[in-house]
Amino acid sequence: MSRKIFVSAKEVADRAGVSRSAVSRTFTPGASVSEETRRRVSEAAEALGYHVNHLARGLMRNESGIVCLIVSELDTPYRASLIRALTGQLQSASKIAMLINTDRSDDSVDQALRQAISYRADASIILSGMPDKSITDLCLKSGQRLVLINRDEDRDGALMINLNDREAARRSFIALLRAGCRNFAFANSEAMTPSLMAREEGFCAAGREHGLEVTVERFGSTTYQSGVVLAQRLLTREKRPDAIFCVNDLLACGLMDTARHQFNLAIPSELCVVGFDDIEQASWSSYNLTTFAQPVEQIAAEAVTWLDQVTSAEANSRRLDAELVWRGSVRGG
Amino acid sequence: MSRKIFVSAKEVADRAGVSRSAVSRTFTPGASVSEETRRRVSEAAEALGYHVNHLARGLMRNESGIVCLIVSELDTPYRASLIRALTGQLQSASKIAMLINTDRSDDSVDQALRQAISYRADASIILSGMPDKSITDLCLKSGQRLVLINRDEDRDGALMINLNDREAARRSFIALLRAGCRNFAFANSEAMTPSLMAREEGFCAAGREHGLEVTVERFGSTTYQSGVVLAQRLLTREKRPDAIFCVNDLLACGLMDTARHQFNLAIPSELCVVGFDDIEQASWSSYNLTTFAQPVEQIAAEAVTWLDQVTSAEANSRRLDAELVWRGSVRGG
DNA sequence: CTGCTTGTTGCACTCGCTTGCAAAAATAGG
DNA sequence: CCTATTTTTGCAAGCGAGTGCAACAAGCAG
C-alpha cells in the first residue's frame, strides 16, 4: 500500500495557475501575496484537500511544532489531568504534543529523549523519572527546550517547575494540630522523589518545632494499594495515630478505605487525614478529602509560556503554591 | 535563538571518513553496509550525538511513524488507561503517539484529523467524538489508516473496534435477576453515543424478555456528578429500584455514594449496582463494584496489529468481549 | 514620458534524508 | 592470473516545503 497520495503544493499551484512559491506564501503568515492569488490558491487547496506538510515545513524552518510529553503511569489521576492541561494549552499555542510512555525499562526516559531529538521536538516536558545528565545536555546543546515538572533537580538551562511542598506540609501539620490531633503520622511511598521527600521533611520539621513526634512509614509506590498497606501498619501501632498526612491522594484513598472498613474508624472524629494533589476522587463523598490542589492549569501555563519565550537565560525555575482545599477529612476548618 | 544546532548526517560522514549514504544506510535496517563502515559510523555518531532526523526520513519514506490519538476528556479513568495501553503498544511497534485533545466543540475532531494529515500521520485512532464523513474520506484517500474505538458507526476502510455492549447488558440483567432484584433501572447519560445506547437497549430488551419493566433515566454526561443526580432521581421514585445498571463506572460511583450517604441505603442488600469499564476505582473497597471490564490491552493490540498489516481490505471490524468482574455490589455471585 | 518607490511573483537553492544506479572493491570459480 | 559474481560505496536525484534575490508590474511625482 503506497502512501504517496497526499496532495502537494505543486498540484495546488498547477490548479491555481501560479508558482509553487505562491502557495507556500499563502500558508505562511506575513508573507507577501496579493489578495487575488491568495484567494485562488485557497480555493484550489480546499478543492484538492491540501494540507501543508508539517514534516517538510519543520525540516526547513528547523522548528517542528512538536513538544514531547514524557511520562510514566499516565493513567494515574493526577498525571492524567496534568497531561490534559498540557495538551490543551499546547494546542492553544499551536504546538502539538507527542506522548511518550516510559513505563517499561528504567533508562527509558533517556530513550524517550532520544526519540524527542529524532523528531526534532522543539521541547520536551518531563513529568516522571529523571534522565541522565549527558542526555539532557545533548538536548539543550541541540537547542531543544526542557521542562522538568516536580523533579526538583538542577539542570542548567531547563525550566524547573516545582511546588512549595515543604510549606504545604507544614501548613497541613498546623491544620491537624488545630483540629486537636496529637499523634501524627506521615504515610509515604518508597519512591523517594525530591518532591515527595520535601513533603515528608516539611511535615516532620513542623512536628519538631512543636515538640511533637511524627511517625513515618514508607511503603511501595504512590498507589491506592500502598495506602492499604500503610494503614495496616500505622493503625496497628500501640500508639495509634489520630492524624495522618498522606503523600498523595491516591494513597490517602486506600488508607481511608482501610481505616474505615477494616479498622472501623470514623473519619474525621477518630482519625484525620490530609492528602496531596486534589485528584477528582478526593471530592467524592466517600472520601471528602482535605488536600492540597496541584495547580495543573497554572503549571501547564508556566511551561507553555516559557516555551514561547525567546530568551530563556534568566529565571528558569518556578515555585508554585499548592492551595489547601478544606473538606471533611479533618475536624473543624 | 537559532535551533540549527542538531548534528547532521554530513558531519558524521565527514568524521567517519565515508559518504553521507553510508551513514544513512547504517541507520536503515537491512541496507547493505560492511561491518567495518557500520562500526566507524556508529562510533562517529555516538561521539557527535547524532540522531536520524525523523522528519526528513518521514518525508522521504512517506511514512512518519506517527499515530494520532484523538480523544476528549483524557483524564477520565477509562480513557487514560486506554491511552496508556495504546501508547505502550505503539511504542513496542516502534511508532509514536501524537495526542490531540478535542475538549471543545464537536468539529474539533475534524480539526484534529487535519492536524493528523498535516503531520502525515500514518494513522489516527479516534477514541471520542465522530468526525465528518468528508474528513474521514480525505484521510483514507490520503492513505492514512483510521481506527474508531467504540464509535460503532460505519466508515468504509477504517478499522472499527467495539464491544458486545448489548450482550454484556443482557448478562448483567440476568445477574441482577438471579440476585433477587425485581425493580430494574438503567442510569444513562445524555451523551447517546452508539455504544452507550447499545447498553441501554440490551438491558431493556432483557427486561422485556423477562416481562419486567425497566426504568430508564438519563442525565448529563458520563461523570460522577451525573451519577449523583441520577441517584436522586431514581431513588426518590415511588417504586424505588433495587437494581441499577449504570452505563459506566464513574457514574456508578456517584450513584453509589449518593445512595449510601444521602439515602442511607445498604449495598448490595437494599440496592444492587452494576457498572461498566472496570476502572481502577471500581475495585476500591468503598465501591467494590461489579462491572464489565474493558479489555484495554486487547483493544490496543487489535488496533496496533491492524496498523502493521499490509492489507486492510478485509474484516475491518472487531467486536470484543467485555468480561464480567464479580464484586460485592450485587448479592450472591 | 522618465525615474523611482512599493508590492508581487517566480527562479533556484536549501533543509536532512533515502535510494536507484553504476562504478569500485572484494570474493569466488576456473 | 583472469573473469564472473557478489558486496560495498558514492553520486545524484528526489521528497515537500520556505525564502533571498532579482525581475517585473503598478502607482506616483516630476
Characteristic terms for this protein:
homodimer; 3 domains; 333 residues; Rossmann fold; 12 helices; DNA-binding; 16% strand; alpha/beta
Q: How would you describe this structure to a colleague?
A:
The structure is a homodimer of 333-residue chains. Chain A contains twelve helices and twelve strands. Chain A folds into three domains: 9-52, no CATH class; 64-163 and 296-320, Response regulator (Rossmann fold); 165-294, 3-Layer(aba) Sandwich (Rossmann fold), CATH 3.40.50. The mean pLDDT of chain A is 93. The termini of chain A are far apart. In chain A, strand 1, helix 5 (77-92) and strand 2 form a beta-alpha-beta unit. Chain A is an alpha/beta fold and 333 residues long. In chain A, 49% of the residues are buried. In chain A, the strands form three sheets. Chain A has a six-stranded parallel beta sheet with strand order 2-1-3-4-5-11, sandwiched between helices. Chain A has helices spanning 9-16, 20-26, 35-48, 54-61, 77-92, 108-118, 133-141, 165-178, 194-209, 224-235, 249-261, 296-308, and strands spanning 66-71, 96-101, 123-126, 145-149, 159-163, 184-188, 214-218, 243-246, 272-274, 291-293, 317-320, 323-325. Strand 2 of chain A pairs antiparallel with strand 2 of chain B. The structure holds a DNA duplex (30 and 30 nucleotides).
